[in-house]
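User: quick one, fold this
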Amino acid sequence: MAQLNPILKTAFKAARKAGDLMLRASNNLSMIKVDSKAFNDFVSEVDRNAEAIIVETLRSAYPHHRIITEEAGVIGSQRAEFEWIVDPLDGTTNYLHGHPQYAVSIALLEKGVLKEALVYAPERNDLYVASRGQGALLNDRRIRVSSRIDLNQCLIGTGFPVVDQSVADTYLAVLKDVIAKTAGARREGAASLDLCALAAGRFDGFFEFNLKPWDIAAGALIVQEAGGIVTDMHGQDDWLQNGNIVAANPKILAQLLPLIRKHLQAA
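Assistant:
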């Protein structure tokens, strides 16, 4: 694996422990206890146990940091300068169906600014990391977003609005337009890995509605450090707050954003 700074080394220690738990549990998926938080929103005992491992590892190294997790919520002081954002298992539905597209996502903010990011895919033993101003890596290899400049040659990653379906009609209108004007769209079920695929040049763009900070914080910094741009649907910087995200290289983002905004105005 790549040489990591102390913060990312701690994050990877946590992610690898959680990933080992997931791999062991995946040998007998039928025995995993699963609860439903809402329609199409599942949480398993693996999510909770992996989260406990990550939180324990981070807090033992950085006891004064704040941690925000998908399941446990906010841990630590509201006044902390450093804040971890953790998704212990991004792609729970994939995981519970034996589909290997899932990951641990961990990001660190300092005074509200993303500074460090890690996404770890246990099934492939792939480690994506980024530090602000230092570029992005997949394992030991530096990665960059694609250099395509024509939208009609691009492969776009996306995610269906399966939990909150209030934007379903708008989303389907956007998706129909994207499919008609690109080389295709893919929905793989884990936003953190979709963003990493964009950072590595396998996707040329990505968009999704109504995501949570833990879905996108780490992946977004990895995209930015790989040369991509991340915005909300209106081209602004509020994507971490509102969960509506568009990402691509500069040339493709300039073509993708107007296509999306057209349908937002129609809605």
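User: anything notable?
Assistant: The chain is about 35% helix and 25% strand.
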